[in-house]
């Protein structure tokens, strides 16, 4: 009979830095992506909070998306980078539990928020006259609260169950963070029922929001097709296609991880696909959704102008 251990001993990550010849390059790339994500999302939050022209429902939702992305990437990447620098691969049981909970809560909140943001764009383009009513401040706060509630419910429901299983003596997680499927492979108990529950949760958290996104953008494209302005159609198609690319990467990679049968999974593929929705997406969201937008670039220029103005005045005094 296989021995197992339920004590709070450390887990060991197999991670992304297995090959010495490429580990330095991967470390540099992930570091650049991490700091770019923090800076881009931080700038977005600052601009939306300080520029009155960006005090609209769309940018209000985008500021919360940026906040989630900053927290989201910070639950995973810093631990990876510190482990590499210290030449260690371990994480404590408590640390793994906390990371698992924060990851599920934040990714769940983002799943719901992206779906509801697509609804916001649908209302703005397809029902512009009713937009102030349908997307009032109260509705926006309800969207934010609903997203956080859905994500938190997922974290509080699944984390205690995942971490309560007895784990085998081999505590090597073949992943770069404490993601549920990778952790469950170490369990010495039957996890079939729990995996069924997790599958149902993933259907609710992935398929429903993604269906809302697809339906919203389908209606938007239908409306845009009827526009008389060729330039307007091109701009709308370009915006929709870039949004759908990022959303498809995010939802598609998550669906592969959580909804595909185990027989289709390979550890190397799992890690690569997890990179898409845990590391790349938090960097791409502000770049695609916001910083390419004329309103945001205008706000950035005004902010830089306010920053340079006092410098010129103080420079003239001396």
From TrEMBL:
GO CC list: plasma membrane
**Localization per Swiss-Prot or TrEMBL:** Cell membrane
Q: How does it sit in the membrane?
A: Multi-pass membrane protein
Question: What sections of the protein cross the membrane?
Answer: 24-47, 59-81, 101-119, 139-161, 196-215, 236-260, 272-291
* Keywords on record: Cell membrane, G-protein coupled receptor, Membrane, Olfaction, Receptor, Sensory transduction, Transducer, Transmembrane, Transmembrane helix
Query: Is Zinc-finger one of the keywords?
Result: no
The principal location of this protein is membrane
What residues does the G-protein coupled receptors family 1 profile domain cover? 40-289
Respond yes or no to whether keyword Transmembrane helix is given for this record: yes
A molecular function (GO) held by this record is:
olfactory receptor activity
PROSITE patterns in the record: G_PROTEIN_RECEP_F1_1, G_PROTEIN_RECEP_F1_2
Which Pfam family is one of those matched by this entry? 7tm_4
Task: Tell me which family the UniProt entry assigns to this protein.
Answer: Belongs to the G-protein coupled receptor 1 family.
The protein's role, per its UniProt record: Odorant receptor.
Protein known as: Olfactory receptor
